[in-house]
Hints:
- The protein is mainly α.
- The chain has 5 helices and no strands.
- Helix 1 runs antiparallel to helix 2 and helix 1 (6-27) packs across helix 3 (62-82).
- The longest helix is centred in the C-terminal third of the chain and has 36 residues, at 98-133.
- The radius of gyration is 37 Å and the shape is rod-shaped.
- The chain starts with 5 loop residues before the first helix and ends in a 40-residue tail after the last helix.
Amino acid sequence: MRSPAASLRGGAVGATTVSLSVxxxxxxxxxxxxxxxxxxxxxxxxxxxxxxxxxxxxxxxxPLLLAGLLLGQFASHVALxxxxxxxxxxxHTILPSPTMxxxxxxxxxxxxxxxxxxxxxxxxxxAVVRSVVDPPRRxxxxxxxxxxxxNPVSAATFKFTTSISxxxxxxxx
Length: 173
């Protein structure tokens, strides 16, 4: 069964992969991407996002998303290094530095937990939003009940001569 949040999960994983890899690479003095490196990182993010959105039985689990995010981080790092010929000339290796690797692992773990939490909250949050945004439903008005009598009764039909009055003193008969 496909989760209704699967495409959102794929988009979140792809966007997180791109943003975390660019941030980690830049903060660890690897530089920010330009030109072909940026295109390669976007392609990696798109691929990881599509793979993460593949329907599975049940919801996404943290270890599975963590593995996808870590794979995406490593592939993005490779794309950043290979896509920048200037970095290759100045001795950047394909393997990330320990600082960069530690940042990638920590950020990927946090992102995996965040994406799984968001997916679990997707149903309750959208139910609340739908109840607020959808126009109120009209209540069905029941049809008016009409009683058709074959012999209509009116006040003129009754004669009030046989009624017994309870007021006044009793009469002797």
